[in-house]
Amino acid sequence: xxxxxxxxxxxxxxxxxxxxxxxxxxxxxxxxxxxxxxxxxxxxxxxxxxxxxxxxxxxxxxxxxxxxxxxxxxxxxxxxxxxxxxxxxxxxxxxxxxxxxxxxxxxxxxxxxxxxxxxxxxxxxxxxxxxxxxxxxxxxxxxxxxxxxxxxxxxxxxxxxxxxxxxxxxxxxxxxxxxxxxxxxxxxxxxxxxxxxxxxxxxxxx
Length: 206
Ligand SMILES: [Zn+2]
Prior knowledge:
The protein is of the alpha/beta class. The chain is 45% helix and 17% strand. Zinc ion (ZN) binds next to helix 5.
């Protein structure tokens, strides 16, 4: 298959790779020693992925891609921060990726902890863990105010809010999407099925 060169092709490649993973027939492409040597001098990933750190969300595995394919940025609960926006801007400006994928997942511990914190105050020994909850809380509070209590629905809203925040904070990413040079897809990963379900798209149709 030709290397994806625009957002639509990049999304198609990711969807096809995920299909291989879901059906249990991964091709495990681009993981050989020869390619590793060829890539050492330059990387040209075809997409950036910003997702939750959850160990079950292994980026290259769930999309059946290989070395040099994805520029991956992850943290617990996929929460926007200056360093995250900087990493994604780097992938767009320097590496020229045509697609950013924002990936959440069902049963996300970070979103669940935030939801739980609205009933029982969060108690953690780590003094920075509450920062994660604090950043997801506005999404949870808005959902609860609208009568939405389902964890996976709230997680889906969090993916959408994450994309909105990325577009607000990065002039580069917003302008590239507006000029048609960059696409952004939001998706939800289903842990049991291994399926990536798209829930939002900017700059391309899916
Ligand atoms: Zn998670």
